[in-house]
Write a structure and sequence with these properties.
It contains nine helices and seven strands. By secondary structure, it is an alpha+beta fold.
Length: 249
């Protein structure tokens, strides 16, 4: 009688089962290690970084230069979502013309919806003008929209990323009209360059914090670069929230 467990189909089945078990075990161990490191304060969020970002010309990476001070990264005037007194802050430096930012935008939108009452999210400008011709004016236009309300900004933010292929001045005005804002003050703000200096300040801050391109996140002041998976960010945010709750009791 042949040994049934040595048949090719059975061997393949065993291999599949083995791979699945190893995968589940690896995932479980990874989550556990994330949890333990975050709770002990030894986890370096920068380890989440990827190279999926638009790079700033002439800038090399410098981990030692990266800010770890949340108060320096968060501002009072940039658009935000969530409570400012949250134990978790996520600040994104983005570029509306950056394809990696566009790829990452659905993840940030999903996270903001998931944690809107528990985590503080903020968006700051880092237009890469050396490679993106329309990024600076798009950032200025978004600031002009934000002047009329935080909700208007986020609506405009979404429209820009969803229409990244056309960020000409006329298109920026058309998108602003779609948000429902008062167009007269917007056009005056946009055409006069009211927020040119503000956008430049954001860019200079990003460079001083160690940003090397877009998107760049700062999670509780720790720099994380590139397009990061939503599942990994959820793991980190959940553990930071849990750690904060444990510290209360």
């Amino acid at each position: 009688m042949s040994q049934w467990y040595l048949k090719p189909k059975i061997i393949i089945l065993w291999v599949v089962v083995f791979v699945v078990v190893v995968g589940i075990t690896w995932f479980g161990v990874t989550v556990f290690l994330f949890s333990q490191q975050i709770k002990s304060g030894t986890f370096d969020y920068s380890a989440l970084s990827t190279d999926k970002q638009s790079k700033i010309a002439g800038i090399t990476d410098s981990v030692s230069k990266a800010s770890r001070n949340t108060q320096l990264v968060v501002t009072l005037d940039d658009p935000s979502v969530g409570p400012r007194n949250s134990p978790v802050t996520v600040v994104e430096f983005g570029d509306f013309e950056c394809p990696f930012c566009q790829a990452f935008y659905p993840t940030m939108k999903s996270l903001m919806a998931r944690y809107q009452n528990r985590v503080f999210f903020q968006y700051r400008d880092l237009p890469l003008t050396s490679i993106h011709d329309y990024a600076q004016k798009a950032a200025e236009a978004a600031e002009c929209v934000h002047e009329q309300g935080n909700d208007f900004f986020w609506r405009y933010h979404d429209i820009l990323y969803e229409n990244q292929q056309d960020l000409t001045d006329e298109a920026l005005k058309k998108y602003a009209r779609q948000t429902g804002i008062d167009m007269i003050p917007f056009i005056d703000c946009f055409e006069s360059g009211t927020y040119t200096e503000e956008v430049t300040t954001d860019r200079n801050d990003a460079l001083s914090f160690g940003a090397t391109g877009t998107p760049t996140l700062f999670i509780n002041g720790v720099r994380v670069t590139g397009v990061i998976s939503e599942s990994k960010l959820i793991q980190v945010i959940d553990q930071l929230l849990e750690q904060a709750e444990d510290n209360v009791y």
